[in-house]
Amino acid sequence: MKWQENIAVHAGRYDGVSAVRLALSSSCTACIPGPPAWGGGAIELRAGEEDQTGRLFYETTTRGGGERSRSMIAYQSRTESPDADYPVVSYGQWAGPSVACDGQVGNTPGCIATENLARVVLSKSQYGASAVAYEWAQNNLSDNNAMGTAKRPLTRDGDKARAKSRSYYTCKAPPKPFVADPTVVNDECDEFPFARTRQGGTIGSMCAEIIPRYVGGGAWRVDVVSDEPVAPCIRAHVNSDDNQNAGRSVGRQVRSERILQGEAYQVVITP
């Protein structure tokens, strides 16, 4: 598995010199670094100039399966002021990101930076009623039940059998199975938290039930069919296309974000 970093350098104000030469390289703890930036040479920048041509390359031996490997990136720099009265050469070193690589998500290995909580992003303009329903859940369920946030993230469970069981309990199980609403075209039950999370699978009679409705101009309203006290979940009446497209997007982002089984992530809704 290989990846690269693109380097941009901007020269600010200099005192006593007109230019600075910079050389940059990197190292890592569990991967193989490539050659230094700019082919191993130094670039010379005058005040106000910018250079965006630098590249740093890395390779990990991670293949399909196996445990996740973590690498700490570090950078090393060499600067000099060639036209100073007394030329000075300075060396610097600082820590970069932590990078995790694995072969456990999807069909191919991949790597991610691991500083921040993984995010699944869904836009209301693209995923319609489903995205609106998830946003409503995060904004209207009680603080202890508003899941998928940075404070209370979801936990991935990719097991298909358990996901099928969770979906059944939320959408089909008695005493109050989901009943399609005739005012919603191709109405399907969409649940939040998702069935493929450890937080999903609450019996549907305990969930708040809502109908997101598009009112035009990019605006939505949400009709509450059943507002259970301190509901830990929602089930929403949404068009089947929105439901299925949102589900596919979540699956793609789980792979691209390298969210392993049992790992946490947040759901971010955008316009």
Rg value? 25 Å
What is the CA–CA distance across the termini?
34 Å
List the uncertain runs: none
Classification by helices and strands: alpha+beta
- Number of DSSP strand runs: 15
- Let me know the largest β-sheet: 5 strands, antiparallel
Give, in spatial order, the strands making up the sheet with the most strands: 4-2-6-7-8
Helical run tally: 3
Please state roughly what percent of the residues sit in beta strands, choosing from under 5%, 5-15%, 15-25%, 25-35%, 35-45% or over 45%: 35-45%
Helical content (DSSP H or I, runs of 4+): 10-25%
What form results from the Cα inertia axes? elongated
What does the average pLDDT come to? 92
The string of secondary-structure elements, in order, is EEEEEEEEEHEHEEEEHE
Notes on the structure:
The chain is an alpha+beta fold and 271 residues long. The chain is 17% helix and 42% strand. It contains three helices and 15 strands. β6 (65-80) and β7 (89-103) form a beta hairpin. The longest helix has 17 residues, at 124-140. The radius of gyration is 25 Å and the shape is elongated. The two termini are 34 Å apart. The model has no long low-confidence stretch (mean pLDDT 92).
